[in-house]
Structures are given as structure tokens and as C-alpha cells.
Design goal:
Layout lengths: L6 H25 L4 H4 L5 H12 L18 H14 L7 H14 L2 H13 L4 E4 L15 E5 L2 E8 L10 E7 L10 E7 L5 E6 L8 E12 L3 E2 L5 H10 L4 H21 L6 H29 L7 H24 L17 H8 L10 H12 L5
Parallel strand pairs: 1-4
Antiparallel strand pairs: 2-3, 3-7, 4-5, 5-8, 6-7
Length: 390
């Protein structure tokens, strides 16, 4: 790995650093720290306010081409942006689904009309997007999906349901996979659609999690009509779009940004509670710090491979697995630090940080499921990288 930055990259760092500090200070003075910075609810006033500052400053969609509203930034400039954001504990932008996944797919597969209609509104977060992929009967085996789309004139009529649809209750648009040809092998008969979430026939049922959050939803489609001009890519070629989309989902730096902030908050908590010098606690904090640094170096190793034009290695699944496990241990160390106070929820008289750590101890468990379970990542590593039998 090469840890050196070019003069141009250092100039970019100084430009963003000069912008970030005063704007983050002004944002915190108005909103303070918000739990939705972790859940990334795009309906949160605080999260939307920060996104608006980033957008007005030209810092949203850095790597998007300039003709679509981005800065045409390099991959290293994106890394520098993330490093500086982590250094000051800045919130992420909202509409991550739209910016990091839908936008690139529109640029690659979309028609000129689709790009003109959607791309700018994705960056500004005027249009929030969700992803209609997983179904109750097809989670890990996505290609077995059963939601149907049947052609009727210039429309396709969709029936079925999706589940674990993050932020569907806040979204204006959905990137939807549906089966358009049931007679061919399962990977061949899927089409990707751009669905307006205000279309008649859509019912959204929030799924209440044990943290009290309702980030996920089940979405039902009852004879929902989608104009065929909203097909993304080619008819029955949706699997190709899906695989391209999912390749953007497990972005190492975005995950690491959350982990870095979480571990540093746990370290600060241990100091505040006067337990950071306890021998056992110091060992646990040190291990969290080591594991976070290993994660950072693994992310940079993957980035170095990409910059050299090498194909992706096993880092994606390894990063995802390590991230979920280290984040979970960080939450458990916070629980040990607080003792019985870790069970006091938001609004309770003696709740620490208004129940933040109680929320985190429950919320952390989602990462072992979302974006591919730990068990799936272990299978991928074992079968595809180590050559172990199924």
C-alpha cells in the first residue's frame, strides 16, 4: 500500500477541511447530535439539514460526473472526504441508496429521459429511493423472487410483495425487481423497474424492530401499473442490473466511517465513566482500536488493488463480516461500561445520553443481518475464496 498523497490530493483535503469545520459547528449548534445519524432516516430534520449544507457546498455525489451534478472527484478524493468527516464526527449524507446505488445504475443503464428526470433530485434528496429486491421467500437466493410484472399495453402490472425494504415509508421512488418471464431459467426472466411509490395499489407496512425503530418495511403490490418507459436496462435483463447494484452496496469506506465513530464514542464513554484505566477494560478498548485499524488497512488494501486495475479480491465479504462483529463488540463494551444503566431507554430518569447506548446495544445487531448475513459472508469466504466444500 502507498500511504502518500499527491499535492493535488492534499489541496483537496485542505479545501474540504476549511469548509467542514465551520459548517459542522453551525449545524451542531442548531441540531446537536441526532440518533438518526446512525439509522440514516432521510425524514429526520437534522439529517436533511446536514445533507442540504453538503449539497449547497457541492460535497454530495463527489464521484458523480460533473454533467450530472457531481464534482468528478477521484476515488482518493472520496477517501479523503471520508477521512476528514470521520475526524470531526460529521454525519453522513442522506439518500445513500439513491446516491451510491441507484445513481450509478441510472448513469450506466438509464435512458436520457430517466437520467434527466432523476439524477439531480437524487443528489438534492428531493427524491428519496428505496430498494425493492428481497422477498419473504427469497432473501439469500434473490433470483428466486416471485413478484410478477405482466405486460398490459404500454404498462406492466405488478403483484407481489417485498420485505426488509429500508426507508420505503419515506421514499418517493423504488428500484424494483420483478419477474417478467416465468418460463425461462430464474436468472433470465427478471426485469428492473423505476417505480413511483405514490402509484395506486402500493401498501407499506413498517416492521417494528426491538430497538423501537421502524427502518424496514414490507411492501405489498396489488395490480400496480408501471409504464414500460420506466424499465431500467433491457426487458428480462434485470439480473445484470441487480448484480451491478449490489456491487455498490458493501462500500468499505462508508461502513468503516460508522465503525470508526462508534469505537471512538465507546472510548470516550469509558473515560467519562472513569473505567478506562481498569485493566480488563483497557484490554477490550485496545482490541477494539486494533480491530478498527485492521479494518481501515483492509479497506485501503482493497482500494489500492482497485487503483492498480486489479480485480476485486475477497475483501468485500471480509470487510462486511469484520465490520458487523467489531461493531457488535463495541456495543457490548459500552454495555459493560454502563452496567445496569445500559438498560435504561430514552426518556427514563437516569438514562445515560438519553438512552443512546440502550438503542445502540439493540441496533448493532442489525449489521449481522443487513446487506448479507454473517453466515452468508462466511459461506462466500469459505466456498469462493478458500475452496471449502458447501
Amino acid at each position: 500500500m502507498d500511504f502518500r498523497y499527491t499535492p493535488e490530493e492534499e489541496a483537496f483535503r485542505q479545501e474540504f477541511r476549511a469548509w467542514l469545520a465551520p459548517h459542522l459547528h453551525a449545524h451542531r449548534a442548531q441540531w446537536g447530535e441526532d440518533e438518526d445519524e446512525f439509522t440514516q432516516h432521510p425524514s429526520s430534520p437534522a439529517s436533511l439539514a446536514w445533507h442540504k449544507r453538503l449539497y449547497d457546498g457541492g460535497w454530495v455525489g463527489l464521484q458523480w460526473p460533473k454533467e450530472y451534478g457531481g464534482r468528478g472527484a477521484t476515488q482518493m478524493q472520496q477517501v479523503i472526504y471520508t477521512e476528514e468527516s470521520m475526524r470531526l464526527g460529521a454525519p453522513p449524507e442522506v439518500n445513500g441508496m439513491g446516491i451510491n446505488m441507484v445513481g450509478p445504475m441510472l448513469m450506466h443503464y438509464g435512458t436520457a429521459e430517466q437520467r434527466t428526470t432523476h439524477l439531480r433530485k437524487i443528489l438534492s434528496a428531493d427524491d428519496i429511493w428505496c430498494q425493492g429486491f428481497s422477498e419473504p421467500g427469497s432473501g439469500s437466493d434473490l433470483a428466486s423472487l416471485s413478484t410478477r410484472a405482466v405486460q398490459d399495453g404500454d404498462d406492466y402490472v405488478v403483484s407481489g410483495s417485498k420485505i426488509w425494504t429500508s426507508n420505503a415509508h419515506n421514499a418517493q421512488w423504488c428500484l424494483l425487481l420483478a419477474r417478467t418471464d416465468p418460463e425461462v431459467p430464474k436468472h433470465k426472466g427478471i426485469t428492473c423497474f423505476l417505480l413511483d411509490m405514490q402509484t395506486p395499489g402500493i401498501t407499506i407496512r413498517p416492521l417494528l424492530q426491538m430497538s423501537g425503530d421502524a427502518e424496514f418495511n414490507q411492501v405489498f403490490f396489488d395490480q400496480v401499473r408501471i409504464p414500460k418507459r420506466r424499465i431500467l436496462g433491457q426487458l428480462n435483463e434485470g439480473w445484470r442490473v441487480a448484480i451491478s447494484t449490489l456491487s455498490h452496496e458493501r462500500g468499505g469506506m462508508r461502513q468503516f466511517m460508522r465503525l470508526h465513530r462508534m469505537v471512538h464514542m465507546v472510548e470516550d464513554l469509558a473515560r467519562e465513566r472513569g473505567v478506562s484505566k481498569d485493566g480488563v477494560m483497557r484490554q477490550q478498548l485496545a482490541q477494539l482500536h486494533i480491530d478498527t485499524e485492521v479494518q481501515r488497512l483492509t479497506v485501503l488494501r482493497a482500494l489500492t488493488r482497485q487503483l492498480r486495475g486489479a480485480p476485486p479480491g475477497p475483501e468485500g465479504s471480509i470487510q462486511k463480516l469484520c465490520f458487523s462483529r467489531v461493531y457488535m463488540r463495541a456495543a457490548q463494551v459500552a454495555e459493560q461500561t454502563l452496567g445496569p444503566y445500559s438498560q435504561l431507554d430514552k426518556g427514563a430518569k437516569h438514562a445515560v445520553a438519553d438512552g443512546h447506548w440502550t438503542f445502540q446495544s439493540l441496533f448493532a445487531r442489525r449489521y449481522g443481518i443487513a446487506g448479507g448475513t454473517d453466515q452468508i459472508q462466511l459461506n462466500i469466504i469459505g466456498e469462493r475464496q478458500l475452496g471449502l466444500p458447501k
